[in-house]
Amino acid sequence: MRIRKMYARFFIYILLIALAVFQAIPLLLMFLNTLRTNAQIKTMPLSIPETWEWDNFIKTWTSGGYVTAYRNSIIVSAVTIAIVIVCTLFAAYAMTRLKLPLNRLFTGYFVLGLSFPAFLYIIPNYFLMSRIGLVNNLLGLIILYSAGALPLNLIMMRTYLMGIPKSIDEAAYVDGCTPQTAIWYIIIPLARPIITTVALLVFVSSWNEFLFANTFIVTDSLRTVSTRFVRFTGEWSSDLSKIYTAAVITAGPIMIMYIFLQKKFIEGITKGGVKG
């Protein structure tokens, strides 16, 4: 029996290593191509750089206007993350801790919100935003991204909070805590994994989102990273080294955040899917 378990574990490790290598090779090739000239890439797409062209990052960053794009994306992502975390945390606390009328109806309502793809309501959203002056405005993107991220992340937050025993809250009330202080000193520390997961998911979706950003933003000074990347690849379609470099610049923050937060992210995902 032990031998079988050892062979099974060995096979799983080999499979995971193979999958990791399979996923890592395209990323490695993309990074290596950022350090090569356009002629080298076109001559031999898959090879080690003959000369390490570190200037590609500086030239692409400057010519692509990524200073402004990064600023806009950071503003939109940071504010959206804050709004989604606050709204989902308090809403999930109310749905799991308070005896609300029509609680299941609200849960079903947000689950239903997951069924509709974003492009179905892009036209009515555009007319609404244009009426209130939020077209070509970062605030409009923040509102749209926050509303779109609420259903999934609220369900995840609610599921996670259901796994925290209510006896902890009751003990805190006995010690003199109010619901507000219980949330701050008990719920939030215990919910850090799911908060990190929600923050990372919202950041990735906000940073990568293209459809709404390209539709609602028309001024170059307000463009986000995703829209700037597509525009940049159109302008420099013949220079593959700059395209690869722009891709690394665009996806870099996501990869860095996932590397440092992957443990909390996986913990939040796994624990957030235990109960329904």
Keywords:
MetI-like fold; 276 residues; 13 helices; mainly alpha; 77% helix
- Helix-strand category: mainly alpha
Question: In CATH's first tier, which class applies?
Answer: Mainly Alpha
Mean pLDDT: 83
Radius of gyration: 23 Å
- What does the largest sheet look like? none
Describe the structure.
- The protein has helices spanning 2-33, 38-43, 55-63, 66-97, 103-113, 122-131, 138-162, 166-174, 179-190, 192-208, 211-216, 225-235, 240-271.
- The model has no long low-confidence stretch (mean pLDDT 83).
- It is globular, with a radius of gyration of 23 Å.
- Helix 8 packs across helix 9 and helix 12 (225-235) packs antiparallel against helix 13.
- 77% of the residues lie in helices and 0% in strands.
- It has 276 residues and is an all-alpha fold.
Q: In brief, what are we looking at here?
A:
With 276 residues, the protein is an all-alpha fold.
Compile the SSE list and pairings.
Layout: H1 2-33, H2 38-43, H3 55-63, H4 66-97, H5 103-113, H6 122-131, H7 138-162, H8 166-174, H9 179-190, H10 192-208, H11 211-216, H12 225-235, H13 240-271
Helix pairs in contact: 3-13, 4-7, 4-10, 5-7, 7-10, 8-9, 10-13, 12-13
